[in-house]
Design goal:
Shape: flat
Strand order of the largest sheet: 2-1-6-5
Distance between the termini: 24 Å
Number of helices: 2
Number of strands: 6
Structural class: alpha+beta
Radius of gyration: 16 Å
Length: 109
Amino acid sequence: MPDFTPALSTPGSWSVGDSQYGEGKYMQLKIPVSAVHELCTHLMAMADDAASHKSINVWNYQTSSAQDVPGIVLSCKGKDGQYGAFGQINPAKHGTATRPAAAATDMPF
């Protein structure tokens, strides 16, 4: 199998925890400045490739209803921790083979 080719030179991270304002949850994305353009390039490549599009459900505030639209899904592995769920943002570079299944379960943190 081909080697994993990451889209980002330095992985980002994400976390989900309890809101500091006492209502619901919050999600935080942390993207290194050195990887911002790489992430944007990766997302734009996926946007330009119709084979990468999936039907996603979003909330339309104008009609106060959910609707299905074409979208990009960026999936990231994670773990549950003391303060909530967390993980890394390190997608395979668009147009390259994805990470082999055996390595996909390994998390470097």
